[in-house]
Amino acid sequence: xxxxxxxxxxxxxFFVFAIPVYAGAPLDTVKVNVNNVLDVLRxxxxxxxxxxxxxxxxxxxxxxxxxxxxxxxxRTLSRNWSKLNPAExxxxxxxxxxVLEKSYADKILDYTNEKVEFTKDEMKSDTQAEVQTKIxxxxxxxxxxxxxxxxxxxxxxxxxxxxxxxxxxNYRTQFNDILSKNTPEQLLETLRKKVSKP
Length: 198
What we know:
Elements: H1 2-14, H2 26-42, H3 52-66, H4 69-77, H5 86-109, E1 115-123, E2 128-136, E3 141-151, E4 154-162, E5 165-166, H6 167-179, H7 184-196
Antiparallel strand pairs: 1-2, 2-3, 3-4, 4-5
């Protein structure tokens, strides 16, 4: 149950920044865009099982608008990013997105009206910020920090920290372990197999 809750929280964070914002504090961006996500999740027309794929597609579009996929992938691989050639990097970005969706999509669809509170934002530099929030469930409060980067006038997320656990760091550990013993092609093949599993 704890793993499922963590998965729900992580994927909820992915969809907070649905609309690019050209000005204003990062915290305001979070407040505005979380409602767009919740609108999809709470839409009564999308409650039926037959609408599951439609809901997933709507969330997928929001994810692509919100997330700096290249920044996220580059930071996740860290020093190993340069071991991949441009074609491999592009495939990694695509496969990694699919791995995340496969891992968390069903959990986000099980959202049951948990409350989100927005605490504060902290500018780390002119182009980076951290937004602090918490999700309130029936039994506990879970701190969620969003790490954001400003590119081309748009704030986008590149990492999520749930109860002091960084999503980037978590996957970095896994991928670094694979690449310490295998080639980039073997890493990609591992991801291809994970994505192709039913």
